[in-house]
UniProtKB/TrEMBL annotation:
Gene Ontology cellular component list: plasma membrane
Residue ranges annotated for the ABC transporter domain, each copy included: 2-228
PANTHER family: CELL DIVISION ATP-BINDING PROTEIN FTSE, IMPORT ATP-BINDING PROTEIN
Function field: Part of the ABC transporter FtsEX involved in cellular division.
Protein name: Cell division ATP-binding protein FtsE
Subunit structure, interactors included: Homodimer. Forms a membrane-associated complex with FtsX.
Coiled coil: none
GO biological process, one term: cell division
Family to which this protein belongs: Belongs to the ABC transporter superfamily.
UniProt entry keywords in alphabetical sequence: ATP-binding, Cell cycle, Cell division, Cell membrane, Membrane, Nucleotide-binding
Chief place of localization: membrane
Pfam families xref list: ABC_tran (PF00005)
């Protein structure tokens, strides 16, 4: 589903983000990306989101080589790969309902589809009663649930989360992680960059650890797998 073939990223100022790396993530996996600050986690995610271009190598997602996509084709990639961030990035002047609806408007869903899908996804993330609230009226956990609802409402097969619990207290962090696990159980491939060592250890999911731009650990235990 996601293949990185000998991918490296050196930023224009010469800083190395990721050294040549090959990696594959299969449909339906739940993967943690771990490592210290500055190790290259975000670079790896941004490469998969086409927010940065690799210096060398190829990246393909769902059989499509994203490194070949033109800038203007990136919105189509967002249908395959949804994303949530540490700082939520909700639209402050839109309600919970409107934030989620807006993501569907962007991909030209009809009003009918929007009216059907938004309440369903708000129910799924436990926010049915908060539909009319504005982001500033919500707790951090509720804001992150809204961001997750917005990310999944278009049924993207892949969800990338960059430090999704970085701004949340421990119990809220567990709620958000459980929600991501639920979403994974529904068939979505979920990739989570995190510092939360305790969660990673307890959940026993695949862990890819990055250090100084190199994958130093990958606990993949599945069946068939390309040599990485
Ligand atoms: P992490 O997400 O693990 O904290 P990053 O991928 O953000 O790590 O960073 C990896 C390395 O790349 C760091 O040395 C960081 O300073 C550098 N870096 C990240 N973004 C840029 C950028 N836009 N320009 C230059 N260097 C960058
Ligand atoms: P439209 O006329 O554009 O189809 P809607 O009836 O979908 O409008 O929505 C009108 C307003 O009501 C929107 O701003 C939206 O925020 C709000 N709204 C619609 N449905 C719900 C709902 N199930 N829960 C909360 N707010 C809703």
């Amino acid at each position: 589903m996601i293949y990185l073939n000998n991918v490296s990223k050196t930023y224009p100022n010469g800083t190395v983000g990721i050294k040549p790396t090959s990696l594959s993530i299969e449909k339906g996996e739940f993967v943690f990306i771990t490592g210290n600050s500055g190790s290259g986690k975000s670079t790896l995610l941004k490469l998969m989101l086409k927010e940065v271009e690799p210096t060398h190598g190829k990246i393909s997602i769902n059989g499509r080589e994203i490194t070949k996509l033109k800038r203007r084709q990136v919105p189509y990639l967002r249908r395959d790969v949804a994303v949530v961030f540490q700082d939520f990035r909700l639209l402050p002047n839109k309600t919970v309902y409107e934030n989620v609806a807006f993501a569907m408007q962007v991909v030209q869903a009809s009003s009918k589809e929007i009216r059907r899908a938004v309440p369903v996804v708000l129910g799924l993330v436990g926010l049915a009663k908060k539909a009319r609230c504005y982001p500033h009226e919500l707790s951090g956990g509720e804001q992150q649930r809204t961001a997750i609802a917005r990310a999944i409402v278009n049924n993207s097969p892949i969800l990338i989360a960059d430090e999704p619990t970085g701004n949340l207290d421990p119990s809220t962090s567990w709620e958000i992680m459980n929600l991501l696990l639920d979403i994974n159980m529904r068939g979505v491939t979920v990739i989570v960059a995190t510092h939360e060592r305790e969660m990673v250890n307890l959940l026993k999911k695949r862990e890819i650890e990055v250090s100084n731009g190199i994958i130093v650990k990958d606990t993949y235990e599945g069946g068939y797998h390309d040599e990485v």
